[in-house]
Amino acid sequence: MKKFGTIIGLGYCLPDNIVNNNDLEKMVDTSDQWIRERTGILRRRILDREKPSSDMGIEASLKAIKNSGIEASEIDLVIVSTESPDYLTPSMACIIQGGIDAVNAAAFDLNAACSGFVYALTVADQFIQTGMYKNILVVACEGLSKVVDWKDRNTCVLFGDGAGACVLTASDEPGILGYDIGADGKKYKNITIPCTHFSEEELFKRKNKRDQVIYMEGREVFKFAVNAMTDSVNKLLREQDLSIEDIDWIIPHQANMRIINNSVSKMNFPIEKVIITLDEYGNTSSASIPIALAEAYDSGKIKSGQKIILVGFGGGLTWASTLIQWI
Ligand code: UT7
């Protein structure tokens, strides 16, 4: 009998430290008004400099496992989506696996930038469909404050830190109904964080400093994002033989309120049925979707039987969407 990957537990973690737009006015040439009007962000959470980002992933995971009702030892696999890992090796997944005592789990990281959580859910669901694994922990864990150039107003006002996690289990009932993941690697230079290779171009973009910080062509990513999210959701709906009216909630990647507004208006989807956390937490990259999902669930918005679309885009450039029927 066909198995579905079904979410049975959610958790998230945000650092306590709140940084308002006014705080950023003291650091770069920006204003609260510009940030609100151009992005919709009011504040973001920033992790203490000395703390590893994986701490947030561990806390989010422990909550998700507790809510799922299974034991950490029953988890077969830990997949962590991150573009801001504590180490290149070991993976964040190994650090989190150790931190939560998931002693029987295999562990690996996946990097699809801000689309990473939906990519990771897709990969996890494949392991469930083949029958290889029963319980999989999918985590998105991002400490972007550590890779942001705090002197670059084009990027530093956008990002925040956080982690979200879910336990996916093999079930006879849906579950994850379908997904669409994709990439356009020809556009890779639009968002970069160099690691071991600094081309002349990357050095130039970063004012000749070998800093491992984000560089982004915001306008290019903006144009890509609106089309990528709309096309991906439409493809998913076609494949599932559904129309947009069948969808109860859309949870988009939280990058910019104008991107969200433009995309859902192109999809003919009401903004009232879109989950928004961007104002409070900024762009937490791949963690933004699971944080928004967990918050919406905790607040009672998401109910059994509802159909939810998660849709993201980001560095790579990548995009990803999935359709879930809530159990
Ligand atoms: O999750 C990762 C994916 N990334 C994204 O989703 C980002 C997508 N892009 C965006 O969200 C938007 O493009 C931004 C928010 C990054 C920028 O907004 P924009 O409306 O596209 O602004 P722009 O880049 O066209 O810049 C307009 C002006 C420029 O000044 P001039 O050249 O017109 O004088 C910028 O220098 O705004 C200026 N500017 C700022 N001004 C005040 C850029 N950043 C700031 C700032 N404060 N923080």
Search tags:
327 residues; alpha/beta; Peroxisomal Thiolase, Chain A, domain 1; 2 domains; four-stranded mixed β-sheet; globular; binds oxa(dethia)-CoA
Topology:
Blueprint: E1 4-13, E2 18-20, H1 21-25, H2 32-39, E3 43-45, H3 54-68, E4 77-81, H4 92-99, E5 106-110, H5 116-129, E6 135-143, H6 153-156, E7 161-171, E8 176-183, E9 191-192, H7 200-205, E10 215-216, H8 218-239, E11 249-252, H9 257-266, H10 278-281, H11 288-298, E12 307-314, E13 318-325
Parallel strand pairs: 4-5, 4-6, 11-12
Antiparallel strand pairs: 1-7, 2-3, 6-7, 8-13, 9-10, 12-13
Helix pairs in contact: 3-4, 8-9
Bound molecules: oxa(dethia)-CoA.
Oxa(dethia)-CoA (UT7) binds next to α2, α6 and α8.
Could you give a short account of the major beta sheet? Answer: 5 strands, mixed
The structural domain count equals 2
Unreliable spans: none
What is the count of β-strands? 13
Bound molecule types: oxa(dethia)-CoA
Question: What CATH architecture of the largest domain do you see?
Answer: 3-Layer(aba) Sandwich
Structural category: alpha/beta
Strand order across the biggest sheet? Answer: 1-7-6-4-5
Residue-averaged pLDDT, rounded? 97
List the total number of helices.
11
Helix-strand pattern, N to C? EEHHEHEHEHEHEEEHEHEHHHEE
Oligomerization status of the protein chains: single chain
Strand percentage: 15-25%
Report on this model:
With 327 residues, the protein is α/β, with parallel strands linked by helices. The protein folds into 2 domains: 170 residues, Peroxisomal Thiolase, Chain A, domain 1, CATH 3.40.47.10; 149 residues, Peroxisomal Thiolase, Chain A, domain 1 (3-Layer(aba) Sandwich). 33% of the residues lie in helices and 24% in strands. The protein has a 5-stranded mixed sheet with strand order 1-7-6-4-5, with helices on both faces. Strands 8-13-12-11 form a 4-stranded mixed sheet, with helices on both faces. Strands 2-3 form a two-stranded antiparallel ribbon. A hairpin with a 3-residue loop joins strand 12 and strand 13. Helix 8 packs parallel to helix 9. The chain starts with a strand and ends with a strand. The mean pLDDT is 97.
